[in-house]
Amino acid sequence: MQKVDLDSMSIDDLAVLRDQASEKLADKIAARQRELAAEMEKLSALSKTAKAIAPKKDLKDIKDALKPQDAPKPQDAPKHQMAKPAQADKAA
Prior knowledge:
Mean pLDDT: 77
Order of helices and strands: HH
Low-confidence stretches: none
Largest sheet: none
Strand content: under 5%
Number of helices: 2
Structural class: mainly alpha
Number of strands: 0
């Protein structure tokens, strides 16, 4: 990109440059919005396909499996998994 000496430009030239930059920016934003809209449509179509393939019960099971679960409480753990407290040295 060509370097521009903004200090040496007249106010009119700076205004033209600002307008050109604004137009170019608006064009790029519009192009990006079109790209994102097309991606959203693709994702929406995939989402509809996934919902049609997977029964609701399965989706619920999947959502439930993905939810964070609380740590099991010691009384909930099987007895063979519960750790016994360490015994202190009798010499101490």
